Amino acid sequence: MARGGAGNMLGVGGSRKNLGREALRGGGRGGRTGGGLDPRAQKRELLRRLQEKRQQQRQEGDTQQGSS
């Protein structure tokens, strides 16, 4: 036997937001539905900053060795 209707299941799936075509295609709010960067972009940005920091430290070390 089937259960009678879905009237007693209100709120089970959480609140829904009607998304427009642009949001469904990844447009708007940083290209993500929730906004912000996707995990790959976050990792790329983190690696870029780390590499820049290491490069600066290396250059500072070279200038200190060269001046002594």
TrEMBL record:
UniProt feature, compositional bias: Gly residues: 1-14, 25-37
InterPro entries found in the cross-reference section: DUF6243
Record region (Disordered): 1-68
Annotated transmembrane regions: none
Domain of life, source organism: Bacteria
Biased composition (Basic and acidic residues): 40-61
Protein name: DUF6243 family protein
Organism: Streptomyces dubilierae
